[in-house]
Design brief:
The structure holds two protein chains of two kinds. Chain A is built from six helices and three strands. The N and C termini of chain A lie far apart (about 45 Å). Chain A is of the alpha+beta class. Chain A has one domain: Sufe protein. Chain: A (Alpha-Beta Complex), CATH 3.90.1010. Chain B is built from 14 helices and 17 strands. In chain B, the strands form five sheets. Chain B has a seven-stranded mixed beta sheet, sandwiched between helices. In chain B, strands 13-14-17-16 form a four-stranded antiparallel beta sheet, covered by helices on one side. In chain B, strands 1-2 form a two-stranded antiparallel sheet. In chain B, strand 7, helix 7 and strand 8 form a beta-alpha-beta unit. In chain B, helix 2 packs antiparallel against helix 10, helix 3 packs across helix 10 and helix 11 runs parallel beside helix 14. Chain B starts with 15 loop residues before the first helix and ends with a helix. At the A-B interface, helix 2 and helix 3 of A face helix 12 and helix 14 of B.
Chain lengths: ~150, ~425
Amino acid sequence: MNTSTTERDALYDRLIVERARAPLYAGRFEEADARGDGRNPLCGDKTHLDIVLNGHHIQDIKHQTRGCAICTAAADLMAEHIRGGSVAQALELSGRFRAMLVEPPPSVVVDDQSASLGTLEVFAPLRSHKARIRCAELPWIALKEAFSHVDG
Amino acid sequence: MSTQTPTVHAVPQLDVHAIRQQFPILGEKVHDRPLVFLDSAASAQKPNAVIDCMANTMRHQYANIHRGLHWMSERTTEAYEGVRDLVADFLNAPSREEIVFTRNSTEAINLVAHSFGALLKPGQAVLISQMEHHANLVPWQMLRDWAGIDLRVAPITDDGDLDIEAYKALLADGKVALVAITHMSNVLGTITPAKQIADMAHAAGAQVLFDGSQSVVHHKTDVQALGADFYTFTGHKLYGPTGIGVLWGRRDLLEQMPPFLGGGDMISTVTFEHSTWANIPHKFEAGTPAIVETIGLGAAIEWVNKIGFDGIAAHEADLTTHALQRLATVPGLNIVGHPRVRGGVVSFTMADVHPHDIATLLDRNGIAIRAGHHCAEPLMRRLGLSATARASFGIYTQKEEIDVLADTLVRIRDFFV
């Protein structure tokens, strides 16, 4: 895309394009402690998660995603962010990720939490593309499903 | 695609520039770019003739119809019923009483599924094709489940044509009571061989319904020449308003069929114990209909008639040929469906770029297309795809817009690969 187009296409951060093209956490685990599926009936996109747990600690995670660039990159960056943390931390991050997508940006107080979303902030421009928010949410929906079978 | 130039008869050239002037929305900008609207197969834009007619109806000549004894009601009834004549003429239906107004093509098909379906017996079958829109699939599944009939699905070829031999085989046992098939696929652009389909259905003792939602827009429709028994279309794809569709049905069939919805306007006499039904078409038009929308559909039909289908069909064939040629030059682009006869709908995929990403990035450049399963999930599965991008053309589409589409697609592919 030429420069002017790139500016308008801030929606597709370079990181999204890179992770969609070559995801770092794509694949399956034969042995997994939790598995989850997300499916968007409106577009046919789907993602499958295999999670290896050590107690309530997310030791490893892989995703198998058939979807658009946003969905694939969202799954990959989600895996990157929650790997090595606890289930509770992952669910808490899920809540803040969703808040970033659906809530209006804080106009007065800039909360310090948003900074901690790190590279997940590349999805913030989706806020003004309501039709595509579901694409980024799909892996998180799969994550919730995976953890629904795990004792809190 | 054949590169042979067909013999050109004296087809009136459309003055596309003048036509575009009649669509105020085409002057709008999207994301600071001129709107390039390539999504007419989903819903077409509206000319001033339709907009003004509807506004003027509400401003100057509006009341409920069929019941008022006052001047306004009588004039509005005349305008509403006048559209029935226009539609009958538009489809070359034998009589105006065979034209039933519905909300859209979906409701028209549901009406047939409900009311013609009520005449079917367990063991009989309805036969559809693999390229049906959900509107011509789900109502028959619902009928199957409550009436105990069979639902058969005729396959398509890899090119996207109806597999005629397989179709013939599915008719062979004489149990098919109704064939319900699209006249033009909203995904593949396939124009089905309607006359042949109808002749084969009749030879096997079946009636035939064509979903004409896509096809009525592109060429002249003659339900008698096609040998159809039912035909449906929707107003909003024909440059008319939403909320108004049409079912045409053969008189003897409509007369045998029980009503669809009950209420005012569809009755002859009503007591607390019993009601009797009005004659067709009113038997199928319960409640206050979409009066303004129906009158708007009339304006759309008159507007299209004035331009003429010879010119429209030639213009759209020209656009489609141009689009197939231009899109073929986009690296990694794959056209979905290569039917023998096609209309102005082109579906495609691109290697390494998801259709939704294509649609979003095109939109950022002011270009509106559709992406997804196009309400034809089983067809997508048959094609081995989850989604496609689709560009579709209308009376106001210009070749330059297709060039903008192709050029932007090249840039999108560069962006992702």
